[in-house]
Amino acid sequence: MKKLMMALTIAASFAVAGPALAADKLKIGFIYIGPPGDFGWTYQHDQGRKQLEKELGDKVETTFLENVPEGADAERSIERLARAGNKLIFTTSFGYMDATVKVAQKFPDVKFEHATGYKTAENVSVYNSRFYEGRYVQGVIAAKMSKTGVAGYIGSFPIPEVVQGINSFILGAQTVNPNFKIKVIWANSWFDPAKEADAAKALIDQGVDIITQHTDSTAAMQVAAERKIKAFGQASDMIKFGPETQMTSIVDNWGPYYIERAKAVLDGTWKSHNVFEGMKEGLVVMAPYTNMPDDVKKLAEETQAKITSGELKPFTGPIKRQDGSEWLKAGETADDKTILSMNFYVAGVDDKLPK
Amino acid sequence: MMRIEIVKRPQHSALFSALSPFIALFLTLIAGAILFSILGKNPISALYSYFVEPLTEVWSIHELLVKAAPLILIAVGLSVCFLSNNWNIGAEGQFIAGGIAGSILPVVFPDFQGWYVLPIMLLLGMAGGMAYATIPAFLKVRFNTNEILTSLMLVYVAQLFLDWLVRGPWRNPQGYNFPETVQFSDSAILPAIWPDSGRAHWGFALAIIAAVVVWFMLSRTLNGFEIKVLGRSSRAGRFAGFSAGRLTFFAFLVSGALAGLAGIAEVSGAVGQLRTSISPGYGFTAIIVAFLGRLNPLGIIAAGLVLALSYLGGEAAQISLGISEKSARIFQGIILFFVLASDSLIYYRIRIVSRLSDTALKGA
């Protein structure tokens, strides 16, 4: 075997090297967990990539790898992008965290940006979005619009990012209707249209009349449209898939961040950081408020304005945990570390958090 | 006017046995070139980035071995099952069971360290895979249950069990509640073979050893003879005094052990921790590898490398040509299709019959 390896190694060293690099352009790589056509999570990252290309024109050149599984494959894919001459690499799913850090150690002159994780290094930044701010607004709308007082929530995985959303949604709803409830179904996937559709149907059959989701396809929106109930989109504006169904959607707006970071690399001012940004910084954008009466729309806009200005923080006490114990005292606000590691429900969620 | 008939050969053709891989390769290149031209890409550079580019860099060859190791290990075990007519479709589950069992030490007892940790982990991984493969074997022998269904369904059980473990009891307490275990300590990591040039780990060496041992067993021992006889004709096997039930257990245990070994080698060598999913479907891809290698362990080594290459090539093509990952998958499909289609030439021949001779025949 050793011989074969040697032979291959020798063959390799004589073979042609990869295509020559355009020296003056900043090459930027992206790793996607799904296909850019999912119209959800990956679609929005790809929109961000396109905005970046448009804004910086011929100063940059972008490449992406789609459908990269988390785990052993991620490390290879990231390393391949680094070896292909990319000097800035965005890894856009939580599960790429350790792979990103490992590859970053091997390529100290390449800058890495990992979405939604927590491990940073000299050349690894972390960026995350306060999606839960948008969920709060959705909760307010849901409680105004719902007749049954119960919303259905399709979750992907019970990780902090998703739990934040569920809790923030119910807290928003409870400001309108203290008895508001949500039912949760876990799809155990980020992108599985068939499962997401089944989950939506099951929830509707259980009497919910509002559907919201933390999964990436448009399937739930389409089911809600068929059943003539209202729903919220996820990650991108899904109005095309439910013109009379979608009330709003949390749009992940990554473009400005990608442009800012690429410019920093071009200027030589890039530094590793760990940011958690939301409505104020423009990372979380709400799709137009539609399919609701004017007073609800007005309330939604007011809530959004308060969150944007910082006047309202969704996780501010008094808040009780699901088991009735006190989490936050009146006026107390949860810090980012607590928010980023949230693994319990607040009161009002009609589900047991999988542990 | 003419028509084409497919006629069974009286005995299999040695000529096509040798030629078939090359015919398949040739047809694949042609079909691939057409596909890439339709996509508006230069077919030559597309094929280059698919088949050659991944081999032009040392680190990439390492990655090839990383990718091929689990495929070969599992497929070698499956060849024993398939040759003996035991349709184990659940190698994915046995792979996961091995990964879980082997991870007990580094996850539950992270302070337990030393040179002996790794051998124990590998043995536990094999034991886990074996234990999990025993279930469909037992059900088949005792209740005559269809092992395709039971082994397949047990895959989902294993996946969900792993998911539960990693989210719950085995979750890293310092990990912000994300579903991952702790990172394994150095003594629990299967080391790289040549750490200076890339991350190929000893799992690949284990795969080669397993392939050679199983090849020897199949071709040179009574046990191997028994497997083939019972696989081709269980009646004849019974007359020879072989026990089909015992063989079913044997085949499932071998393939379970190898799948389990692949599981722990992947977790320990390539990932370094347990996650909610540890395999992008190796257990299923290995079924294809086993048949591409014609159920011959040495052929499986080559087949495993080819399939691993097609994964890496798909990635290279995405980067250098912007070809979608989907078309890379289609291309993999084309390869498999032509290989299997060309193999049918070994047992069948194509006869072109002209209408004229046909009517002449009827007239006579």
From TrEMBL, chain A:
- Any Pfam family from its record, for instance, is Bmp
Q: Which residues form the ABC transporter substrate-binding protein PnrA-like domain?
A: 26-307
Keywords (alphabetical) are: Signal, Sugar transport, Transport
Q: Does the keyword Signal apply?
A: yes
One Gene Ontology cellular component term attached to this UniProt record is: plasma membrane
Name the InterPro entries on file: ABC-Purine-Binding, Peripla_BP_I, PnrA-like
Give the range the annotation lists for the signal sequence. 1-22
Q: What is this protein called?
A: Simple sugar transport system substrate-binding protein
Which organism is this entry from?
Answer: Phyllobacterium trifolii
The lineage, from the top, is: Bacteria, Pseudomonadati, Pseudomonadota, Alphaproteobacteria, Hyphomicrobiales
From TrEMBL, chain B:
- Keywords on record: Cell membrane, Membrane, Sugar transport, Transmembrane, Transmembrane helix, Transport
Could you confirm whether the keyword Cytoplasm appears in this record?
no
Q: Name one Pfam family in it.
A: BPD_transp_2
Give its localization: Cell membrane
**Highest taxon of the lineage:** Bacteria
The cellular component terms of Gene Ontology attached to this UniProt record, alphabetical and capped at eight, are:
plasma membrane
Question: Could you tell me one molecular function GO term of this UniProt entry?
Answer: transmembrane transporter activity
State the membrane topology. Multi-pass membrane protein
Q: What is this protein called?
A: Simple sugar transport system permease protein
Report the transmembrane regions from the record: 12-39, 59-82, 89-109, 115-135, 147-166, 200-218, 239-264, 284-309, 330-350
